[in-house]
Structure formats: structure tokens, C-alpha cells
Amino acid sequence: MSTSAATSNQRIAVVIPCYRVAAHVLGVIERIGPEVGWIIAVDDACPERSGDVIEQQCSDPRVRVLRHAENQGVGGAVMTGYLAAIDLPADAVVKLDGDGQMAPELIARLAAPLLAGRADYVKGNRFHRVADVAGMPAIRLVGNAVLSFLTKLSSGYWQLFDPTNGFTAIHRRVLAELDVTRIAKRYFFESDMLYNLNQLRAVVVDMPMQASYGDESSSLRPLHMIGPFMRGNLRNFFRRLLYSYFLRGFSAASLELALGFPMFVFGVLFGVWHWWASVAGRAPATAGTVMLAALPLIIGTQFLLSWLNFDIASEPKYVIHFDLDGRDGSE
Predict the structure, then answer these.
(1) Closest Cα to residue 188, out of 220, 156, 149?
(2) Which residues contact 163 (CB under 8 A, 6 or more apart)?
(3) How far apart are CA 313 and CA 324, in angstroms?
(4) How far apart, in whole angstroms, are the C-alpha atoms of residue 86 and residue 240?
(5) What secondary structure does DSSP assign to 161-202, as a single string?
(6) What does the pLDDT look like over 261-285, one tens digit per residue?
(7) Residue 272, Cβ neighbours under 10 Å: how many?
(8) In what order do the strands lie in the sheet with 168-171?
(9) CB of 168 within 8 A of CB of 280?
(10) Rounded to 5 degrees, what are φ and ψ at 326?
């Protein structure tokens, strides 16, 4: 379909990953307002042939359909749409699910911080207001709370919440700086995006929103995903520590981390070992043994808390897209 309908004042492109959304995606597209100049629908080897449904039943000239021969997961579909959007003259690229859980009417509000130069990446947050949480299933509430804490550790964005929220907007210049081949293609990709954005020192903000849970089906089960997400987040956490505190920069916080972690581990292991030995031998540990365990533990904890305070305070605060050239050479 043609993408020539965009006018000069339209600065937003929308990417819609399509997998088992044939019953909903047409209604989602119909609700996308005139502020959007381009709509890229990516059929991720959908068994319902969502791409064919869109091409056959949607007459919106803004829509372009891309297809995957094999299913690549929601992240893979989004990345395909992102690569196509990089070559468009849009400023903001919004990711919108095709199942109707995200309100297309919020696209302009989601993209506003990007267009106003206040952020490089914006994501929805269903936890910002208590009233917005009322309609959320309890299992999602608990699962997302755990996943949010893990993502704070791995990404360094301590003020963010709801990391699995897929309603996002990114500035096209920042998108062009990302190495999309290194970003996870399945459900972990939203958290992985935050890690990669932190490495660029991009400013990320939340947009309060309320999710809608209707008759659409979702294959994401937050509690079942805690294990895989924990592995991915721990991997990114240690990578972030290495890159940010020892390779790309070195500060007093680096020393606190380098000294605090081994001291804390030594204090715990030494203390547990001698506690168990005293229990097994029914002989109390000496005061010197207790101090040898307690002192490194206390000092290590203080170092780690000081590092954590530094890490929270060093969250990116200055937008970077002003200093980047677009792929088309625009400034």
C-alpha cells in the first residue's frame, strides 16, 4: 500500500507487530488519528494471515505491510518495522500492538515528549495511578512488579516501571543509533531495549496509561517469564556494570563497587561457614571470628549502598537526539 499520504506536518510513524491479531488489527488501524503519517504492519508469519487481512480489507493509504517468512517473535517483528521506519521522514516511531490493549488515541500524547525535545524514548506505565491498576489481573500485577525491579537493575533506569509495557515511542535518530541485531527478538526485547538505550545515555520517561483487557488473547504469562527474564536481566546487569564503571568510565563509585562486592560476599560466606562449624561442633565462635565476618559485611554493605545511590543519581538526564544526525543527514 502507498505511504505517500503523509503531509509535511505529520511527524509520527507507527509500527504494528501482527501475530494472531486478525480479529482486532483492522479496528486498531481505524482508530489511528491523522497525526500519524505512516503505519507499518509486520506480519510475523501469522497463522491468521493478518497481513493479507490488512491488505484486503484496509484502504488506509498510510499502511504498508511487511512479512516474515518465519516467526521471529514480537521483538523481531518490531525491529523489522523499526528498520523500515528509519528511512522515513518521521521524527517519532511508535510501537503499537495490534490486539487492541493499547489505545491508539494516546499516540499523540505518547510521542509528545519526543517531539518537544524532552525525551528520547517514551513508554507506557500502567502502574502510575492506583485507579489504572484496578482493572489489571492480579497475576499480571505481581509478575510485572518483579520484572520491573529486575529491569531497574539491568537498565539503570530506576525511575521507570512496567517494563513489559509494549506501548512505546522512540526518536528516529536514536533508533538509528541502536544496533538492532543485538536486541532480543522475543518478549525480553522491551527490557533489552532499555539496557541498550542506557548504553547510549538516552533519556527515557514513562507515560501514565490504563490498559484494556477484553477478549484478546496473550501468550505472555508474567510469572512464567520471571525465570527467563531474570537470566536476561542479570546478564545485562553485569554487562552494564562492566561497561559503565570499568571500561567506559572509572570513578569513586567504581572503587566502591570493586571493594564492596567482594567484602560483602566474603563476610557472608565466612560468617555462614563459621556459624555452621560452631553449630556442628557445639562450640561458640570467638569474638575475633565474629568480627572478621561482621566487619567486611558491614563495610561492604556501606560501599554497595553508596554505589547504589550514585547509580540511581546517574540516570540519563539530557536528551541525545539533538546531537545525532538522522540517516537522511537531517539535523
Answers:
(1) 220
(2) 144, 147, 148, 150, 151, 155, 190, 191, 194
(3) 24
(4) 26
(5) --TT---EEEEHHHHHHS-GGGS-SSTTHHHHHHHHHHHHT-
(6) 999 999 999 999 988 988 887 778 7
(7) 11
(8) 63-67, 36-43, 12-18, 92-95, 168-171, 121-125, 204-208
(9) no
(10) -70, 165
**Closest by Cα among 163, 175, 270, 288 to 222:** 163
User: pTM for the complete prediction?
Assistant: 0.88
Short-list 176, 35, 204, 190, CA closest to 118:
204
For the chain, how many residues are written?
Answer: 331
3-state helix, strand, coil in the chain (%, to 5): 50, 10, 35
- Going by pLDDT thresholds of 50, 70 and 90, the confidence category of residue 8 is very low
Pairwise CA distance, residues 233 & 227, whole Å: 10
> Shortest CA distance to 17 belongs to which of 219, 222, 157, 214?
219
Contact yes or no for 64/87 (Cβ under 8 A)? no
> Angle at Cα 66 formed by Cα 60 and Cα 69, nearest 5°?
145
| DSSP line for 30-44 | HT--TTEEEEEEEE-
CA distance 246 to 89: 38
Q: Are 115 and 169 in contact (CB under 8 A)?
A: no
| Per-residue model confidence as pLDDT tens digits over 303-327 | 999 999 999 999 999 999 998 875 5
- Provide the grid cell at 150: 529486575
Q: Which amino acid is at 227?
A: G
Among 135, 128, 17, which Cα is nearest to 78's?
Answer: 17
Torsion angle defined by CA atoms of residues 106, 163, 144 and 102, in that order, rounded to the nearest 10 degrees: 20
Tell me how far apart the alpha carbons of residues 223 and 240 are, in angstroms, rounded to a whole number: 25
